[in-house]
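call fold(seq) -> C-alpha cells
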Amino acid sequence: MLLVTTSAALPAGDLRVWELPQDGRAASTARGLVTGQLASWGLEELADVSELVVSELVGNALRYGNGPGTLRLLRGERLVVEVSDTGPDLPQIQHAGLSDEGGRGLQLINMLCRRWGSSRTATGKIVWAEQNMPSWVLAAHQAQSGADAQRDVPNSGHSQR
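ret:
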C-alpha cells in the first residue's frame, strides 16, 4: 500500500483526474490530456517524457489490467503520473531479449523517471511514475513555500525599535 502524506493542502489546480476510455483510444486520449495540462501549467518541456510514460502505463493497463480506469496528474515538487486498472498483478520490469517485440516499457520508465512504483487498491492497482521538475519550477515553489510560511507565523505582539 502506498501512503502519501503532506503537511499542506494541495493548491487548487495541482491535481487533475480523468476517467479513460476502456478501448484502444485510451493511450491517445491520455497523451492528449497530459500534454494539454502540461501546456496549461507552462511545463511543456516535460511533455515528451510524460507522453511516453503515460503511453506505457496505459498500454500496460490495457494489456494486463483489464483496461485503464483513472489517469491522475499531480504537480508538486515532482510531476507524478498515475494510471489505475482492475488487474490484480503488480508490474515487474521484464528483461526482454534482443528480438522480443515488447517488454521494455518499464525499463524505459525506470531510465527516464526519478522513480516509479505500484500499489494495490480495493479494486485493482495504481501504477505511478515521478519526474523531476525543471529547476525554475522548484525555485518558484520554494519561494512560494517560504512566503506562505512567513504569512503563517503568528505575530508575537512585540515590536522592535
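Residues 156-161 have pLDDT under 50 and may be disordered.
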